[in-house]
Specification:
about 0% strand, about 130 residues, mainly alpha
Length: about 130
């Protein structure tokens, strides 16, 4: 594994990949291996070793969660910079938003002239969202 001693060597990553692929129980960990390997090896080399493109990694739940947390953090930062301290209820409401929703809400945050305008848009967004 990349986090172990020697994990920055392509041969170690290749060996770990063989172990994962040899046992169906571990096959879902391939994207996690690629994720960690990308910290210590060039992305192109990781793709070559894994023999797949980053689309596989981007579809993994780990990747989605990381991206969602990053988007939420950036949205909160923009709102705080524009409007100051945010109500806890607003931060809580943003926790349940998807990555796509957070991206749209970022546009709304950039265009909003007040926190009240943003909050109103968020309420409309949530009430119109499919259940």
């Amino acid at each position: 594994m990349p986090i172990l001693k020697g994990g920055n060597e392509p041969s170690v990553i290749q060996q770990a990949l063989q172990v994962l692929r040899s046992d169906e129980q571990f096959s879902q960990l391939e994207s996690l291996l690629a994720f960690f390997a990308s910290f210590v090896l060039d992305t192109a080399l990781v793709q070559q070793i894994m023999r797949w493109d980053m689309a596989v990694l981007q579809e993994s739940p780990w990747y989605q969660e990381i991206m969602q947390q990053g988007s939420r953090r950036q949205l909160l930062r923009v709102l705080q910079r524009k409007f100051g301290k945010l109500p806890t209820e607003l931060e809580t409401a943003l926790q349940s938003q998807s990555l796509e929703q957070l991206d749209s809400l970022m546009d709304t945050a950039l265009e909003a002239s007040s926190l009240s305008d943003f909050t109103q848009a968020l309420l409309v967004w949530v009430s119109n969202a499919p259940n």
